[in-house]
Design brief:
- By secondary structure, this protein is mainly alpha-helical.
- Helix content is about 65%, strand content about 5%.
- The chain has two domains: about 1-225 and about 250-365, no CATH class; about 375-440, no CATH class.
- It contains 18 helices and six strands.
- The protein is globular, with a radius of gyration of 21 Å.
- The protein starts with a helix and ends with a helix.
């Protein structure tokens, strides 16, 4: 039954491979279960309520991505979007969190309408292929940077902006050991090598607390004090349907709805394009596989986010961890979806896996995502410059959206200046207009 529904043989995979891939993607993504409530609770929302909403959204929408879109992509509340929700909308503009949830809901409705009429598919098709390659590679660099900063290997340096952490730190040394072990497993093509690396790194981190600190409270990086707080935590459903639908439609909040919609749009599009390019998940027309169904799932995720009580949901680029492990069908997403569900009750267990254990996986996925960079013609400067901007601004600005915006705008400007305006589609011109609006309203 699984073979027929997910076409496992046709995709060159097996049930075992898909299960391992689902576990890998989940381990790389599950940090959102704790990180998202940590950020959103600063807006006044209850931590437990956000955690429950995060798990429910991740479960239902990852399941939809697997069963409906049949793609190996996980869906969860988006990083960056949760910070925008808390610090820009609620704290910056003084908007009540209930009203901000309403804005999230209406942004999802806009997504849904665009997806029903296939507008978002046209947007994907309007992205020039060299920019697709650059976006995929830029996301690879971004994932690598996230892994390095999570492990405190790359740290803030007032003199040089960034620098390398203290190599005498036992926590950092444990991360480097985990990186070497995981890299060797991947190079030797050990099945489930990334998962094994995460487990071994977690086990090697245990002595750090016993030899260099308090055995019951170990600083595993990211300034996070990991404490064993038990096994059981009852779910909190207090945020369900607490959104303010009418208050969020006031004229003053239209820019907020637009910002949620635009940012989530390009986060999801870049994920679909980047992962499809790196893993060759294309249909017969050369577009990302099942793109319409995937985008519709993403629209449902944003709409559900407002109803459940969290920031917008989006496809997660960390899904590339599972794809690197061989995941090629929706079964990968289905497996990961069900792994989310127990943590609505067992959230304290997340403290067992430290950030230094998942950091090596993110770094190695960065190498996997860099493959398309060789397809860019760096001798054509009207294409090389926009590709470079998209490539470097994604990690340097710590924003996938900003890299895409400046990649699009520079592509249009340079193609026009070179007398090649005919190569620019009408859809791309429209994207550029919205990109400029986003920059104006966002700053």
């Amino acid at each position: 039954m699984l073979q027929r529904y997910f076409s496992l043989v046709q995709n060159g995979t097996t049930v075992r491979t898909e299960v391992i891939a689902g576990l890998s993607s989940f381990l790389a993504t599950m940090y959102i279960i704790v990180v998202n409530p940590t950020i959103l609770s600063q807006s006044g929302m209850p931590f437990g309520g956000v955690l429950t909403a995060t798990v429910l959204l991740s479960f239902f929408c990852s399941l939809m991505m697997g069963l409906y879109a049949r793609n190996p992509l996980l869906v969860a509340p988006g990083m960056g979007l949760n910070a925008f929700f808390t610090f820009a909308v609620v704290k910056g503009m003084g908007v009540a969190w209930q009203t901000a949830l309403g804005a999230v809901f209406w942004a999802g409705i806009i997504f849904f309408i665009l997806s029903i009429f296939n507008v978002r598919t046209y947007i994907v098709q309007a992205i020039p292929k060299p920019l697709r390659y650059a976006i995929s590679s830029g996301i690879g660099l971004f994932i690598t940077l996230i892994g390095l900063t999570n492990a405190k290997f790359i740290v803030n340096n007032p003199a040089t902006l960034v620098g390398i952490g203290n190599l005498k730190d036992p926590i950092l040394l444990t991360f480097l050991l985990g990186l070497v072990i995981t890299a060797i497993l991947v190079v030797k093509k050990v099945q489930g090598g990334i998962v094994i690396g995460i487990v071994l790194t977690t086990l090697s981190a245990i002595p750090v607390g016993r030899w260099w600190g308090d055995a019951s409270a170990v600083n595993f990086g990211q300034a996070t004090l990991v404490n064993w707080s038990g096994l059981w935590a009852a779910p909190d459903f207090s945020l369900l349907f607490q959104l303010d639908l009418t208050g969020s439609l006031t004229l003053a909040l239209w820019p907020v709805i637009f910002a949620f919609a635009f940012t989530d749009l390009f986060d999801s599009l870049s994920t679909f394009v980047g992962v499809a390019e790196a893993a060759n998940l294309y249909d017969e027309n050369g577009d990302p596989r099942n793109i319409r169904q995937s985008l519709l799932t993403d629209a449902v995720a944003t709409t559900m986010a407002g109803l459940l009580g969290t920031s917008p949901g989006t496809a997660y680029i960390e899904s590339a961890v599972g794809i690197e492990q061989g995941g090629r069908t929706g079964l990968t997403a289905v497996v990961a979806a069900f792994l989310f569900l127990p943590f609505m009750f067992l959230s304290p267990l997340l403290s067992v896996i430290p950030s230094i254990a998942t950091a090596p996986a993110l770094i190695l996925v960065g190498a996997f995502m860099m493959k398309p960079i060789t397809k860019i013609d760096w001798t054509r400067m009207d294409e090389a410059i926009p590709c470079l901007l998209a490539l470097v601004l994604i990690p340097f600005s710590y924003s996938i959206t900003q890299g895409i915006i400046f990649g699009f705008l520079s592509w249009t400007i340079l193609k026009t200046a070179a007398g090649k305006a005919k190569e620019i589609s009408f859809t791309l011109w429209m994207i550029d207009i919205f990109a400029v609006m986003s920059l104006v309203w966002g700053h």
